[in-house]
Amino acid sequence: MKSTCKFCWLISLVLAVALGLGVYKVVVVGSVAPYADGRVSVLLLPNERNKVLAEMRGLLESVQAVTEAAVAGDMAAIETTARAVGMAAAEAESPAMMSKLPLEFKTLGLATHKAFDDLADLAAGGAEPMAVIANLSQVMLNCTACHQGYRLGVVGENDE
Ligand code: HEC
């Protein structure tokens, strides 16, 4: 049954391409739209956007607390603060929301959480306060890079 098999191959090919495009959309592209000021909008549900923004405010609080602790020479406080926004904090993200984030956004976000774990290790390893500040300034290049490229929008806002 040569012709049936050709048909099977065709169906398989179509399915493979569809699957590939689906994976590409979910893993690489995400749910995005261009925005008037040149940044890319990541389009989320209102509650997802609120959750990410709350996490962001938490990151800013961590940066403030690490700076304050470094000035005071309190390395234990730096370790605790940085660890709280390390990779453990990233594990709570919902897969549904992760699928809406572009690959670069996910990469920068995870790199930032990982960098806070490294900062905690640095503080725990007896680093000097200035070395912590120097490391933090490098971590913050992730904040500024992501903020330069992206904003958070709500699904449907660009359809109006
Ligand atoms: C992976 C991308 C990414 C990284 C990394 C990132 N941010 Fe953000 N952040 C965003 C986006 C997107 C917004 C929303 C901006 C908008 O919609 O205009 C935001 C918003 C914020 C806000 C505003 C919150 C609010 O309630 O409006 C703060 C504060 C903030 N980020 C702090 C930080 C700090 C501090 C870091 C680094 C330690 C950081 N962010 C790292 C993407 C990121």
- Overall tally of structural domains: 2
Q: Report the sheet with the most strands, covering strand number, pairing sense and barrel closure.
A: 3 strands, mixed
Provide the β-strand percentage band. Answer: 5-15%
The share of residues in helices is over 70%
Number of helices: 7
SSE series: HEEHHHHHHE
Listed once per kind, the bound small molecules are:
heme C
Fourth-tier CATH superfamily name of the largest domain? Cytochrome c/b562
Could you explain how this protein is built, in words?
This protein has 160 residues and is mainly α. The protein folds into two domains: 30 residues; 129 residues, Cytochrome c/b562 (Four Helix Bundle (Hemerythrin (Met), subunit A), Up-down Bundle). Helices cover 72% and strands 8% of the residues. The protein has seven helices and three strands; from the N terminus they run αββααααααβ. A three-stranded mixed beta sheet has the order 1-2-3. The mean pLDDT is 93. Heme C (HEC) binds next to helix 2, helix 6, helix 7 and strand 3.
